[in-house]
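Q: Convert this sequence to structure tokens.
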Amino acid sequence: MKVPMDSLRELERERGISLDTVVEAIEKALASAYLRMTNADETRDARAVIERETGEVTLFAQEIEIDFDTEERTLLREWEDTPSGFGRIAAQTAKQVILQRLREAERDLTFGEYSGREGDIVTGIVQQHDHRYTILDLGKAEARMPPQEQMPHERYEHGMRLKAYIVEVRKSDRGPQIIVSRTHPELIKRLFELEVPEILDGIVEIKKVAREPGHRSKIAVVSHDRNVDPVGACVGSRGARVRMVMNELRGEKIDIIKWTDNLEDFVANALSPAKVKEVRAQADQTALVIVPDYQLSLAIGKEGQNARLAARLTGLKVDIKSESQMHSDGEAQKAAEAEAVAAEAARVAETEAAAAQAAGEPEAAESTPSEQPKPVEQPS
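A:
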């Protein structure tokens, strides 16, 4: 009986699967098949040898001794015992091993293709959706999107085409496991790279992203070319570029602001579209923002969303107050200061009076005219 070596060599050339690796796997599988066929007990073992040139298969039976304390196996004797009619079993075993190696090679190839793409963006078609995860068909592989990586209120219907961000690629027995996300902040960056050539060329850079998936995002951009407006480049003609990104994110609103090293200006920009009158950066990583009265609700945003995103973008705690609130706070502060001064004066007076009494000096406040000493009359 023989193994088709020409086919194995062709497989090595076309698929890159090592000939020696496949032959060794077939030899092990043939030895196991021989032991099953002969109903060998634990004192018997077998070894198969395939001639590399001709493909001829030889089976060797082995008698062994096992030390059950150390689990050492000692070979007592070995003899050739190639069964007649073993050719059909050998051919079937070789076929199974080759198919298995092909599957493993394809898995390794797919893993190698995607393992270096963590942080990249892929386009997939929804194949399955349930409470555990959504499966995307990427062509050569499948990607999984867990619930925590799915956008709220987004429906994933079979056949839907969408883009996702590769979070992690893991190797498993069933092939590579590709974990993707629709909520990751970096997805915004990758989508803008597809739509804005200036970002891909390095002229415009997205410095920071703050995102509440499915609702609203803020991105801070800067230009490395004084002739290029970073905000205008990302918005595009009549908003075409940012609209493409918003459409891909199913209508998620995106605020594009200009990055600046000046902290006060950056905080003011981050609160866009609200108009800011003044920003006071404080030592405790807090920024006090003063806005006109009619801009207060816009600066805070619905349920505090605008202020929350601005805080994430700047890395500061943002305290927003209107001009009226600042005026009221100022008046209250003045009153409190006056009260404190009066209290301090009263305390000082009380302390001085107590000190005088302790020294035995009469207090002026307790003296009356009747108690004053009468003048001594001089003799005439």
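The longest strand covers residues 161-172.
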